């Protein structure tokens, strides 16, 4: 069966969403990224050792990623009602991303099987080539005013302004500096670009082999 027009448009999108979901998942679980942002000033501010801060961070990630962890309880950081509500909303987004990751990974497997059956690797080559150009352009555009887009992201995905933490009521914000979110942003798109490059090389090789 020939590849339909809608599939030509859908396949690159499936590849990109799959890669983005995996990049987010890997970044979330790359604990060394958070460790990189801990410095002497931060430990002095919260009165904790690096090890203790990391322990609380692990507890936070367990709450955000594991569906069966219902209560947000950190050893050394209390939460206000609004702070707790925001973290619950973040948990919903993390779980949504994991669901997308699973669903789109399956779609990717089906898509590659269909492309191989029809020997239509050229479709993926074209789509991946476009993505390799478009993604860096988008990232460059976002980095021109990262603070603005960071705020817009929160306004888009959250129903309230609970994400604006008061350090007195929600001291966890003292160990989650802007630099940490910037590093995560960079990590996500670097991983996505690596994924797209590897996919392009593999698909191009397949296309050349089956000519």
TrEMBL record:
Residue ranges that the Swiss-Prot or TrEMBL entry lists as coiled coil: none
InterPro entries: Lit
Transmembrane segments: 9-34, 93-112, 132-151, 180-203
Lineage: superkingdom: Bacteria
Ribonucleoprotein keyword on record: no
Keywords carried by this UniProt record: Membrane, Transmembrane, Transmembrane helix
Keyword Transmembrane helix in record: yes
A Pfam short name: Lit
NCBIfam families, A to Z: integ_TIGR01906 (TIGR01906)
Protein name, entry field: TIGR01906 family membrane protein
